[in-house]
DNA sequence: CCCCGGTCTTCCACTGAGTGGAAGTTTAGT
DNA sequence: ACTAAACTTCCACTCAGTGGAAGACCGGGG
């Protein structure tokens, strides 16, 4: 090779995955050189790999020539274990119908919440979360609901890190946060007010199976209508409960 | 190499993709040797690739040790162009609320329909389609709605092939099928009765933008309640229309 | 007009990552 | 205990992948 295999030798597969990994919810479309930068691979290598991925429709081009995840990957992604979503969706559905608000389902992944399903109507509040998206745990309702039911050691290692502060209302002080989590455990649900986005607030309940929170259901409403959240807590808890019930039954079988 | 590079030399990337491509909606979980068989790659190669993919959580193991698409790929898939889904979802939502039936959205991909979104309640009929799933066009409502608005040459090449016959009610005779398509064009929607699955029937309407069917909206109900479909056609057409309207507006911008 | 900063594409000589047949190991079924 | 199938490991060979560099392309501003 001219430049030749200088690198100690990463496997090709890991390079392919590095290219794909360059995409995330904050960067859904990238130029060739963006990918090279973000993956740390030489441009010529990225160029070749992208070409091959494009051929298979794992990546596709936007109208302005940038790259984005292709239909083929979406299709593949749909095959991922969907037990939780499948069984929860009808209940989210029902919750949406009774409340008319943004409804979503999230699980914990690492130190973040991962949104796995969402039901929303037309006049929904502009909402940050997106199916497949991630957010930190402490400023979100679902995040708090999940965090409150994690073991002690997990919570303290979460709090030990520097916590992001997306709005002035975000609670980042460890002492106050753990008192809040205790309250969430006690009352069975979490409330947030403009802690993630100015203009919206949320209520969330954990889906508890055998004492563990396997997921959380959240409602997001405009902060003008924050007082209405109280009214919505009951159906929210009911939905979380139903999902937990179905989940437990599905796992017994 | 012991056996060594006998093959003329496919790129590693293509092998990775061949492994992923072994998964489809009919085969969401596969054993190592299933993958080898389906991808045509030697077992030892598959073994290594799968190991690397697993490490990255592109694949994961089921409880019984078989492989399935991992969370990471699902997440990635969520980044795929979702304009259509995003804009259609609220209307599907609304259609579900007014009808209470299985609602889904499909597009044409090649000679098949690809289901891209679905809203369903609890007491839904067991339904074959699944988000990300594919079905042939002629036995499904959405398929007929889409096919009816394809250009002449496409329809004839579709009809020229040997058509599957999943139930005794499936219409496969080219003459009769093209007469049906003409009727669909004339009345603006398609009806099917147990053509794909015994026990369920459907109504579907194309989402027409500039004379082209960019997608189709479908309703599936139990065949016992087939007569009720008539009543549901009106909201169905309305939903398809709204989606078409939003779509056209989004594309103008 | 030309030059500059950026992005994308092509080239090519070298070499180690990938290869796959075969042998060994574990698992399941009879 | 025997058989068959699925899985894992091994290893010598070699070609697919490599990446630096040079070239093409595209605006935009002097």
TrEMBL record, chains A, B:
Signal peptide: none annotated. This is IclR family transcriptional regulator. The keyword Plastid does not apply. Pfam families: HTH_IclR (PF09339), IclR_C (PF01614). Residues 72-253 form the IclR-ED domain. The lineage of its organism: Bacteria, Bacillati, Actinomycetota, Actinomycetes, Streptosporangiales. InterPro entries: GAF-like_dom_sf (IPR029016), HTH_MetabolicPath_Reg (IPR050707), Tscrpt_reg_IclR_C (IPR014757), Tscrpt_reg_IclR_N (IPR005471), WH-like_DNA-bd_sf (IPR036388), WH_DNA-bd_sf (IPR036390). Residues 10-71 form the HTH iclR-type domain. The keyword Transcription applies. Keywords: DNA-binding, Transcription, Transcription regulation. It comes from the Bacteria. One of its GO terms (molecular function) is DNA-binding transcription factor activity. GO terms for biological process: negative regulation of DNA-templated transcription.
